[in-house]
Each structure stands twice: as C-alpha cells, then as structure tokens.
Amino acid sequence: MQRIRKGDEVVVITGKDRGKRGVVLERVDAQHLLVEGVNVVKKHTRPNPMKSVAGGISDKTMPIDQSNVMLFNPVTGKGERIAVKTVDGKKVRVFKRSGALVGSRA
Question: Residue 82 belongs to what domain range?
C-alpha cells in the first residue's frame, strides 16, 4: 500500500523547498511524486512554427523523491509519519503519533 497518494497534502522536509506545503498531483513512479508548487524549474523552449510552439521561458514542475516529503496532519499542523493498520479487514493509513486515520477530520 502506498503511504502517499495522489491528492494528499504533504510538507517538504529537505531540499531547496524545505517547509513548503503542496498537494500531490500525481505519482510519476514508485519513488517520485509531482507536488504542486514544489521543485519548480525554468524550462527554455525554442520556437517551432511547424508545431505552432512559441518560444520562451516557462515554469515546469519536476518530480521529487517521496523520501523528501511527509504527509501533513491538519490537526497538529505538522508533517507526520504514516503506518498501515488493518481495521475491519481493510488496510487503512494512520498517523503514527496520534493514531488518527488519514483523511478523517476527528
């Protein structure tokens, strides 16, 4: 089971964007995530009239390793580690410190 999924709010714990929060846009592969507003780089593109591409400099979101982010707990306002437990025969994600289910508002 993936501990961090698409749509989760995460906080960056290391790197140039340390402390930033964002929503996971997608999982690129087993280890990398695209996080909104994190690891944004400048992409230089050449104009190509055959493909109707205008040249210039644009911002592009690059993948970040999942080991560099933690799931954000809205109750505590911090990033927390995740455990996987079985509840009623189903695997669910819970925060390690509080034991609260991920996604629940209680």
Answer: 9-95
Strand-strand pairing, 82-87 and 21-27? unpaired
Q: Nearest 5°: phi and psi at 86? A: -100, 120
H/E run at residue 10: strand 9-12
CA distance 37 to 23: 8
User: What pTM did the predictor assign?
Assistant: 0.83
The torsion angle over the Cα atoms of residues 94, 8, 33 and 76, rounded to 10 degrees, is: -60
Q: How far is CA 26 from CA 9, 55, 86, 98, 101, in A?
A: 12, 27, 25, 27, 22
What is the torsion angle, in degrees rounded to the nearest 10, for the CA atoms of residue 47, residue 49, residue 54 and residue 55? 10
Tens-place pLDDT, residues 35-59: 999 999 999 999 999 999 899 999 9
- Beta strand spans in 28-68 (E): 32-35, 40-45, 56-61, 64-65
Which CATH number is 37's domain given?
Answer: 2.30.30.30
Domain contains 54: yes
